[in-house]
Amino acid sequence: MAEQHSTPEQAAAGKSHGGLGGSYKVIVYEMENFQGKRCELTAECPNLTESLLEKVGSIQVESGPWLAFERRAFRGEQYVLEKGDYPRWDAWSNSHHSDSLLSLRPLHIVGWLR
Fold first, then answer.
1. Count of domains forming the chain
2. Smallest Cα–Cα separation from 66: which of 16, 19, 21, 26?
3. Does the UniProt entry include the keyword Repeat (predicted)?
């Protein structure tokens, strides 16, 4: 199966910077184990299934942390995703009532450096 990338119009373009100057990048795959259509994000996405993907099967967080939500528009149960690989839904959630992830946003950490 050929790997498809989202267009810049579909995915949020540019770099987002956190409170401490970090950049954010996450790759979301339609199928488990990083297979199928994929979408790279560098900024928030309130609805991953609107035109980007049919569902979320796996995630690779390359930089950030990210806040993932079970529902569209940043609603429902929340999951903090740190840098790393999440090959299937139970890698980011221990919820038995929902296996969906429909919106993502960078988690901006603001703090004092001493």
1. 1
2. 26
3. yes
